[in-house]
Amino acid sequence: MKNAKLQKWSGKLIVRVVLLLFTAVVLLPIIWTFYTSFKTSSEFLTNAWALPAGLHWDNYKNALEKGNMLAYFWNSAYITLIALVFVVFLAVPTAYVTSRFPFRFSKGLSILFMAGLFVSQNYIVIPIFLSLNKIQNFLNQYVMFQHLEITNNLTVLALIYAVCELPFTIYLLTGFFRTIPHDYEDAAQIDGCGYFGTLFRIIVPMAKPAMITVIMFNFMSFWNEYIMATTILKEQKWTLPVGLANLMEQQKFATDWGAMFAGMVLVMIPTMILYSLVQNKLTEGISMGGLKG
């Protein structure tokens, strides 16, 4: 009996030690980045791991003004917001139909969406860019469309992001919608609700954990995306990750290490704040949606 308790206690101890090690591996670089963003370049070069002598807020000022990070921040915020609206608007009705209404070719459609999970947008950047160029050249033939930019357009990029994330979003929402009993829909129809009324008044509120999950995952994907943005956008419309990469190259040779780390913090803060606010619902949405689907 004592040996069993000792083994159980030892197992828990090992698991906790391993989790603490993983936590340290994740947290230490983040903490180091935060306090390094307040250092001067001389402090960083003297001892990269030491705490700063003071809070040098000029690093953030240089990153926002000289590195143009404020403009890039708003570009990223605009693209992320528009892309989230697009993907939710397209994915919610699609997932509802595929999960609640069996019809001809519905299984084939589901398989098609599943296949989209294995297509990374990084693999199709060049075809997308070439297609946009062809559309741009076609529009340039008409005077009324000559001022319309396709390859350097934040809204177009947001739409591309949304379409690329549709398979995963539909997959997760479909799995969650299937766990909701049909009794709620039957009661709503008795009260006179149509399909859209049932979806937005009954199903979507009940699927709140799944909605938060897809919004969180898509937010991180849109906010941190680099390859598509640097291919399609020009400098004045760069997003935050592209601007950060440019800032890192500039400040590395200008020896302004504080501004470089301040730019990194500006990229991390929105994701960390959002994750800390929705982490409980995020875990619930994953367990009830993807695993049961």
Automatic annotation (TrEMBL):
Alphabetically ordered keywords of this record: Cell membrane, Membrane, Transmembrane, Transmembrane helix, Transport
CDD domains named in the record: TM_PBP2
InterPro entries: BP-dep_ABC_trans_perm, MetI-like, MetI-like_sf
Positions of transmembrane segments: 13-35, 77-97, 109-130, 150-173, 257-278
Compartment(s): Cell membrane
Superkingdom, taxonomy of origin: Bacteria
Pfam families: BPD_transp_1
Topology versus the membrane: Multi-pass membrane protein
Family, per entry: Belongs to the binding-protein-dependent transport system permease family.
Name of the protein in question: Carbohydrate ABC transporter permease
Organism per entry: Caproiciproducens faecalis
